[in-house]
Amino acid sequence: MKDDIKIKGKIIIFKKDKYNELIKVYEKNNLVVDTGLNFLVQKLDGDSIADMGWIAVGTDSTPVVATDTTLGVEILRKAFVDTDTVNNLWRAEAQFDVGEAVANWKEAAIFNASSGGIMFNRVNIDFDKLTDETVIVRFEITFNA
User: Fold this and answer.
1) What pTM was estimated for this model as a whole?
2) What is the dihedral of CA 47, 86, 108, 120, to 10 degrees?
3) Residue 5: its pLDDT value, please?
């Protein structure tokens, strides 16, 4: 018997409206990179490496490949403000406030450190973060057999 484990990730971006309600404005699947898979193996082995805890955004549109270890042009990394697990789904969110990371975002990823660290995943996006917006970036990682 052979078990096939599939790890599927996606990014969802929300804007806060004037009533502080979240409005979904962007969604796309992402790739769990080789260092992310190795991170999971190390955690299963009990290694004492830091947990994933930051979402970074950047402006480089270089296509995603499994061997990526950094964003091409990272502009800001924010700590998770929320995480959650439900059955086989893990979710993490970071908030990018008014005036932060104002640019045309072309990439995003999860890391286990406030700088450097291990990259878990990477995704190419096309999202304009405006000066007067508060944005929530959510990554969802689903594990299926």
Assistant:
1) 0.94
2) 20
3) 80
DSSP string, 59-78: ---PPP-TT--S-SSEEEEE
Could you say which residues of the chain have pLDDT below 70? 1-2
**Contacts (Cβ under 8 Å, ≥6 apart) of 29:** 8, 9, 10, 123
- Output the pLDDT for position 1: 53
User: For residues 81 and 67, what is the distance between their CA atoms, to the nearest angstrom?
Assistant: 28
Please tell me the distance from the alpha carbon of residue 118 to that of residue 36, in angstroms, as a whole number.
7
Distance of CA 86 to the CA centre of its chain: 18
Among 92, 122, 118, CA closest to 106: 122
> Where do the H-state alpha helices sit in 1-145?
34-44
Residue 48's CB: how many other CB atoms inside 10 A? 6
Residues forming a β-bridge with 94:
137
* pLDDT tens figures, 46-63: 889 999 999 999 999 999
